[in-house]
Design a protein that fits this description.
Strand order of the largest sheet: 1-2-3
Oligomer: single chain
Helix content: 40-55%
Length: 128
């Protein structure tokens, strides 16, 4: 199972004209993978990014324009970060684990070693 969480901190500075605002977003995304049973694995990672935007604030003094802008910023940045984390941590780990696995049966490996030793013996006897 993959679990995730995030922390977002937003600083808003309204421009003098009141129609635009400067937003500074700091986001930390945390993902972790837990498998259960024999050979269980616990793997986790986190990433922190900061971005800044100037956006137009919708009409109205209720603050809903800021909420809309902040929600869009958080959603966009978190989506990108989660995709990066999944690719960076989990895909890399899966590739490493797959590289470590042996797809060769034990009996095939023993047969190959026996054939190699016979070839070496035959080559050695021909050189004499």
């Amino acid at each position: 199972r993959v679990h995730g969480d995030s922390i977002n901190v937003i600083e808003v500075q309204e421009k003098p004209n009141g129609r635009f605002a400067h937003y500074k977003l700091t986001t930390t995304v945390m993902l972790w993978l837990q498998s259960e049973g024999e050979g269980s694995v616990n793997l986790g990672g986190n990433m922190t990014r900061q971005t800044e935007f100037d956006k137009e604030v919708s009409e109205g003094s209720s603050g809903l324009g800021h909420v809309k802008n902040m929600g869009e910023m958080v959603e966009e940045l978190e989506t990108k970060m989660r995709a990066n984390l999944i690719e960076l941590y989990f895909e890399k780990t899966r590739n490493i684990v797959n590289d470590l696995r042996s797809y060769e049966l034990l009996s095939d490996g023993e047969a190959r070693k026996k054939m190699q030793s016979e070839l070496v013996k035959n080559l050695a006897s021909r050189q004499k």
